[in-house]
Amino acid sequence: AAMFADGTAPGADVESLWRSARSARCEAKSCQTGKVSTAEAAVQSHTSRDAGVQTDQSGGAAQGFQQEVQVDYPGLLSFLQRVEDAVIKELNKNWKSRAFEGFEVNWTDQNETVVCLHTLSYPGARDQNLQVTSVSWNATGSVVACSYGRLDDGNWSTEKSYVCTWNLDRRGLNPQRPDLVVDVPSSVMCLAFHPSQPSLMAGGLFSGEVMVWDTSRAEDPVIWRTGMTDDTHTDPVYQVDWLPDATHGQHARLVSVSTDGKILVWREERDGRLALAEGFAVVAQQIPRSTRLKLACGEAAVGVTSLSFSHFDPRVFVVGVEGGYSLKCSTAAEALALHRTGGSVPLRAPAELAFSPHAGPVYSVSCSPFHRQALNLFLSCGTDGQVHLHSLLQTQPLVSLQLSRKYLFCVRWSPVRPLVFAAASGEGNPLPYAAIRCHERFCFTGEVHLFDLEQSSRKPALSIKQGERPVYCLAFNAKQTRLLAAGDATGTVKVWQLSSDLTEQGPRETQHLEQLAGEIRD
């Protein structure tokens, strides 16, 4: 047989041990790692208990810390019975006492000094050597405004001037950059904010025109003006004031006075005009006569320089005039003035009483803002350097205060203290009214004098030197009562913070003023 031959052998199956072992370890082919075992567990402990925030007292600790108070109740009752009558007697005496009548607790910090908080000016006005002619606070007491003009140059009506405002509560106040600057074509002689609408402000111009600005309108602030008509003043307007209008609720009509002798009341029209509502004229022949007064005769108009309304009778007001005297007037006057005018409204004669005159023109008058008999008091000042304290009931002054060689441009009662008032002055000799435009050449220093009649009725309680030029105008702040603004001939407004004793009313101070006035009369 052959060595090698073809043959077929049966097949053999070999089972894979690797594949079976892998299948045993993995339940799913899609999972590379083995299954992770998990269990639910709370993040906080599952047991809790209540505990007090303080340690529990033990009997021994309580005895050491707190001893029971032993009260002798029979002894206490016996003591109260013994002092009962004396205590009730003292309580009744205190209940009837008026020692603290009118006293109010003041929780603010006491300030015993007068300091200058702000020195405000507008560089554009100072470059023109313009003076501050008037200052006024708005109804909130946060904004002070000043008017610029010139009192030492006869060419007033052709020179541009300004009205500027600063909000003293504004963060980042820049004393050399007013919040609002209004360009005015003529010198602004006087200024007055509306008593209840903080953004409304009225001004009187040297040209005789009266204007009203809305300080919230920076682009075009003029909202009313008189224009130049037959009703407009023909001389400079030296004071404007807001008169409450009883027929129109909270509305107020505007009053202006001028050296043309007219006192005019204006109403607002929708077309932006101020229309004449009523008017008065002071004529020498119609001023009530007094054997102590020497008044000019004839039908000549008497120039009006200042005005102040009674705070309690809106019909009564006082005016100061060029001739050096003050007049008590009334809006209820019916007699027609002899002053001839071509205006749309007939003018009436308001004067009821003439007071003893100053030796020079009266620059300023101010009625007392306080109650009872004090409402009959007013102040006047002029170029004779005197302040007169008058009662509306008699012609002779109750007090005449002479401030040396100084003559006075403005006087104002404090809005919070019945016995305090301020006066603005410049050093110099009294001048006739014709020289008013040239008075600066005679004035060398400007001062603010603060009088406290409780301390003295003859000399200031404090005199503040503001600068080397006269102080022309003053305004107390009725809201922030420690603030007093004063404007001067350098074009600067200084805001003074007054001391506590000048701004905090003492008990029964109004009665003290009445008593003082009564003693002086007697």
In short:
The protein is mostly beta strands and 522 residues long. 12% of the residues lie in helices and 34% in strands.
Structure in words:
Helix content is 12%, strand content 34%. It is mainly beta and 522 residues long. The chain has a domain at 109-130 and 418-521. The strands form 7 sheets. The protein has a 5-stranded mixed beta sheet with strand order 10-11-12-13-17, with no helix packed on it. Strands 1-29-28-27 form a 4-stranded antiparallel beta sheet. Strands 2-3-4-5 form a 4-stranded antiparallel beta sheet, with no helix packed on it. The chain starts with 16 loop residues before the first helix and ends with a helix. Residues 26-31 and 428-443 have low confidence and may be disordered. It holds the Pfam family WD40. GO terms for molecular function: dynein heavy chain binding; dynein light chain binding.
Which helices and strands occur, and which strands form pairs?
Layout: H1 17-25, H2 59-65, H3 73-96, E1 115-121, H4 123-127, E2 131-137, E3 143-149, E4 161-167, E5 180-184, E6 188-193, E7 200-205, E8 210-214, E9 222-225, E10 237-244, E11 252-258, E12 262-268, E13 274-281, E14 304-309, E15 316-321, E16 326-330, E17 347-348, E18 351-354, E19 362-367, E20 377-382, E21 386-391, E22 399-402, E23 406-413, E24 420-427, E25 446-452, E26 462-467, E27 471-476, E28 483-488, E29 492-497, H5 500-503, H6 509-521
Pfam families: WD40 (PF00400)
Subcellular location: Cytoplasm
Keywords: Cytoplasm, Repeat, WD repeat
